[in-house]
Amino acid sequence: MKVNWLEHILGQNWTITPAGGSTGEAYYAQNEGKRLFLKRNSSPFLAVLSAEGIVPKLVWTKRLENGDVITAQEWLEGRELNTEEMKHPRVAALLSKIHHSTELLDMLMRLGKHPLTPDEILQDIKENQKVLDHVDSRLEIHQAIKYLEKNVNRAHHDQHVVCHCDTNHNNWLLSSDNQLYLIDWDNAMVADPALDLGMLLFTYIPKENWNSWMNQYGGIESDHLMERMKWYAVSQSLSFIQWHMMRGEYNEAEIRIQKLGNMMSHHNILP
């Protein structure tokens, strides 16, 4: 969408700047103290997230003549969490609220999301394996795929919740009035909560703190949960590597490969 479409909606007195992000469809708009975050074709799911206080407040929604939908949210002063702050009990509490929300789950199911299975994730990774052609000789990649294949049946679980699917620290927004939000829900799925938990714990929480973190989350650490978290942490790592490779972001892919290798080594994840 061109900025002039936004000028048509808002009027010409607004200063509009791109907000970045993977889609290039988000903008900041400002006019005499009024500040909005605008996005094209956000999911209807955004309204429920706003009502639950998980994302900044949804101000309005407008449908254009071509069918595109523009959403406007509060543009808040704030910052992303740093890696150390991911250990804070508020992170565990907010993720728990999301995973235990029947309203979020019902809405996402009504939007046609079916529970994502480990088999589907593995199939998607293998179908996209060609993008790893010039790195798949790397031991980390080879071992990770073998591990997923060998343990896919052990990753199955019949409890499904709304998963954000990218609990990276830069998606956690702490506003200037000390409110915590989890933003960027474009890839949300109905899935095993271990999908979100695995990447977060393996990336940010020292192993000796997992039990206390899970108590703050409201769950119980178990052998089966551990196996599922391992599986999803590895599968998400591979998916992110593939995503960066497809975008030609080879430096980012290399960083992810190194992190994957470190995680597998540190936690003794072997095929």
Automatic annotation (TrEMBL):
Q: Which InterPro entries match?
A: Aminoglycoside_PTrfase, CcrZ_PhaseVar_Mediator, Kinase-like_dom_sf
Spell out the Pfam families in the cross-references.
Answer: APH
Superkingdom of origin organism: Bacteria
Aminoglycoside phosphotransferase domain segment(s): 19-230
Q: What residue range is the signal peptide?
A: none
Please list every transmembrane segment annotated in the UniProt record, as residue ranges. Answer: none
| Protein's UniProt name | Phosphotransferase
